Amino acid sequence: MSYNPQIHHRNSFRLQGYDYTQPGAYFITSVINHRECILGFIENGETRLSHLGLVVRQAWLDLPQHYPNAVLDEFCVMPNHIHGIILLTDENYGSKPAVPSITKPNPLEAHSHAQRHGIPEIVRGFKTYSARRINQIRRTASVPVWQRNYYEHVIRNEQDLDRIRQYIFDNPMKWELDRENPVRP
């Protein structure tokens, strides 16, 4: 089948003109392909991770080793998705991230961001590594594990950060109502 932009396009959640390498806080959600519940199950409001869920959890926890400007905040592995907050720091100064603002790309600043890893690269690395490991365990080659896209939200202030932290913390207790739950009533 040849490429048809009316059929084969992906909607982007990215903010137009926003620099996703700049220091700040970002809320990420990535969902397993076909929303298949391979990462575990919910029991009494808590996630019980399967072996594959433990692989995903470890891949998430390993992100700062591969991306020195990434600091992990609250996260939760659910039966078929992961929610997490990634804080990007200015690795040159070790500063804590400020709440980011939407900016137009500045060619004069392009050089200063060349060494910094952005959210798209970090999420791609997480999904690639965890999928490769899951496919090794399942003895499948190149089978898609994650949905192609992911949800991302730029956290704009402390209230937004606190609200999202609470959402992530509460997520297992609200699994029955979760839109990613394939057996939701």
First and last CA, distance: 37 Å
Task: Report the principal-axis shape.
Answer: globular
> SS-based structural class?
alpha+beta
State the CATH topology: Alpha-Beta Plaits
From the structure provided, what is the oligomeric state, counting identical versus distinct chains? single chain
Which CATH top level class fits? Answer: Alpha Beta
Order of helices and strands: EEEHHEEHEH
Number of helices: 4
Strand order of the largest sheet: 4-5-1-6
Arithmetic mean of pLDDT? 84
Structural description of this entry:
It is a single chain. With 185 residues, the protein is of the alpha+beta class. The chain has one domain: Alpha-Beta Plaits, CATH 3.30.70.1290. 26% of the residues lie in helices and 20% in strands. The chain contains 4 helices and 6 strands; from the N terminus they run βββααββαβα. The strands form 2 sheets. A 4-stranded antiparallel sheet has the order 4-5-1-6, sandwiched between helices. A two-stranded antiparallel ribbon has the order 2-3. Helix 1 runs antiparallel to helix 3. It is globular, with a radius of gyration of 17 Å. 25% of the residues are buried.
Ordered list of secondary-structure elements with their pairings:
Blueprint: E1 24-31, E2 40-43, E3 46-49, H1 51-61, H2 63-66, E4 70-77, E5 81-88, H3 119-138, E6 151-155, H4 158-170
Antiparallel strand pairs: 1-5, 1-6, 2-3, 4-5
Helix pairs in contact: 1-3
